[in-house]
Amino acid sequence: QVQLLESGGGLVQAGGSLRLACAASGSIFSINTMGWYRQAPGKQRELVATVTSGGFTNYADSVKGRFTLSRDNAKNTVVLQMNNLKPEDTAVYYCNANIRAHWGQPLYDYWGQGTQVTVSS
């Protein structure tokens, strides 16, 4: 059983910073892409940032230059450092990982339970 455990989030004023962490545990053979998505009320879930096992990162245009995603392959963790937060960053943030649980099995997408980020103006 694979689990994604998220930590971080909370309430911050505009211009402030927050750090989100996500750790994958359980039956894991390999992890392809890890990252974060977010969903604001009344909106669809959207990509925030992802990183491949090789370290290639992809950011939403809206967060480029403000958010930094890092990954530790040995610990199966990712950390999203969010700086200069804006009210429009308010959303539930979900960790995502593309995981192969055993050799020969296909990759599956796993999701964390979500953590609330609220940015006040």
- H/E element string? EEEEEEEEEEE
Which stretches are low in confidence, meaning pLDDT under 50 for 5 or more residues running?
Answer: none
Helical content class? under 10%
Distance between the termini: 41 Å
| Secondary-structure-derived class | mainly beta
Largest sheet: 7 strands, mixed
Q: Which percent band covers the strand fraction? A: over 45%
Rg, rounded, reads: 14 Å
Number of strands: 11
The number of helical runs is 0
Question: What are the defining features of this structure?
Answer:
121 residues
Task: Present the secondary structure layout.
Blueprint: E1 2-8, E2 10-13, E3 18-26, E4 30-39, E5 46-51, E6 57-59, E7 67-72, E8 77-82, E9 91-100, E10 108-111, E11 115-120
Account of the 3D structure:
It is a single chain. The protein is built from no helices and eleven strands. The chain is mainly beta. Strands 2, 4, 5, 6, 9, 10 and 11 form a seven-stranded mixed beta sheet that branches. It is elongated, with a radius of gyration of 14 Å.
